[in-house]
Design a protein that fits this description.
Elements (H helix, E strand, L loop, with lengths): L18 E8 L4 H15 L6 H18 L4 E8 L3 E8 L22 H8 L2 E7 L6 E9 H8 L1
Antiparallel strand pairs: 1-2, 2-3, 3-5, 4-5
Length: 155
């Protein structure tokens, strides 16, 4: 796996074609688990069991970042599923700085800051989108998992 230093050039925030599922959770310590379980259920029902583990890990990292680094009162999640892929969008109401992956300063001791490296390693694509032009009011971190990327990683 190649280390990721910056997110790939994001595609515009355009929900993929397919079935859409939405969930709004309070920005609370329980949010990552609630969203993880929601995404896993959607993928099982949509017959993408091979993407469940990667999706759970990625969404947990992104929602945990929103919980730890924003004061947004709620976190909105949208999952779009079709026969080839799943795209998960996590939106909060505090645009702040754009999340970026970073490497640990002291790899033996630094337990934080590597979640987006995991997302970058597992996702076929990922990125961020801020809303509100010169006065941003919210941001979305999104990632796409596909059957092709899951097969490539398992080889």
């Amino acid at each position: 796996m190649t280390p990721v230093t910056d997110p790939p050039s994001p595609a515009p925030y355009l929900p993929q074609r397919g079935e859409r599922y939405r969930l709004v959770v309070p920005n609370a310590p329980t949010a990552p688990k609630v969203v993880r379980d929601f995404v896993a259920t959607v993928l099982w029902v949509a017959e993408h069991p091979h993407l469940v583990d990667d999706a759970r890990l990625c969404v947990s990292e992104v929602v945990s970042n929103a919980y730890c680094h924003t004061g947004s009162p709620q976190i909105r999640v949208e999952v779009t599923v079709n026969h080839r892929q799943v795209t998960v969008y996590v939106t909060d109401d505090e645009p702040g700085s754009t999340p970026r992956p970073r490497t640990a300063v002291q790899p033996d001791r630094d337990e934080h800051g590597r979640g987006l490296l995991l997302v970058g390693g597992l996702a076929a694509r990922w990125g961020t989108t801020a809303y509100g032009a010169q006065s941003p009011h919210s941001k979305t971190v999104w990632f796409t998992l596909s059957a092709a990327s899951a097969a490539r990683l398992s080889v």
